Amino acid sequence: MQINGAPAEGGGGAPDLVVTRDDLGAIGNDAYELRTKLSKDGDHARPATFDAATALTNGNFASGSAVLKVHDRWQTHLKTLLDSCAHISNHLDYTKAQHAKDDVKIGGDLASISKLSEYMK
Question: Is the pTM of this model over 0.85?
Answer without folding.
Answer: no
